[in-house]
Amino acid sequence: MIASNTTVDKARARQLLSALHDGLSEITGGSASSEWEALGQAMDKAEHGNGWFSPSEVRHAASVWSRALAPEAVERWLESMSVPSNDRQPVTVGIVMAGNIPFVGLHDLLCAVVSGHQVKVKPSRDDAGLTAALIGCWAQACPGLNEQVSLETERLDGFDAVIATGSRNSGRYFQHYFGGVPHIIRGQRTSVAVLDGSETHEQMQALSEDIFRYFGLGCRNVTQVFVPRDFDLNRLFAAFVDWTHLGNHHRFYNNYTYHKALWLMEAVDLLENGFVLLKEDEGWVSPVGALHYQRYDDIADVEQRIDEGKEHIQCRVGNGGLPFGEAQCPGLSDYADGVDTMAFLLGLGG
User: Fold this and answer.
1) Domain CATH code at residue 57
2) pTM to 2 decimals?
């Protein structure tokens, strides 16, 4: 049942998150129960609705969430919450989800459900039915959830607060449309890596996970790499070998060949290996099928550059940041854009 106020009902939260953890674990383990069968089927068919949602990438995303929802991780998250001392009545929170990678809006949904508010979810048209299937199966496993969460297929209305995620252009639209209510609005961000030249081949291979997972479409994907002046870029190509299969994905390869032709006509100096283009460029976001890099002489210059671009950056990996290979494994306390979603939600009502 729905909590009578926005103070977190930790027992209910544990029940909800444990059920979702078990369901995702069953699916990724290949033995889904009847309650979760529909989500497994939606995951297998998602590529028909979104060509970027290949079965391997969708299942990888589900496995990441299964690990994030492990009981000990849930307990740490719940214990870290600052719960208001006064009772606050639930409000209705609208969630507008992006559709760039599988289950990209799940963290917002978890936060809203745990907070005890009513939740209206508007998935992206690129979601390929994953969110609807997940909510449907989760509600079967946890009676009462469907009284709290509703799926909106048309225009989102009837909300008291909003969490909306989209592109830089849609972010401006969201600011205009949702500006009159409490909100969290997210636009486009990307991630960077900083190398100091001492990295092992294994660390470079882990970096390739940060770059290529989900075809590079997520805000936690590395699209800009800072390297020392004398760094041998062939070390990157050697570490990228395990991702050669991307050249067989028609959408990814079309992006790669398009930008290769465009930049060659413009006489841009490029390095390439058949599926990714390395381009020396200060731009934070590189196109799909490409990776920007910048050389540096003094790490202080890198720090200044990153500080100047902090509004564009979601994650930093490598020197001074997350371990290589961890960018696409956010935990429950890793809030997008550095904005504490739970604190926002628990501050609503009154």
Assistant:
1) 3.40.605.10
2) 0.93
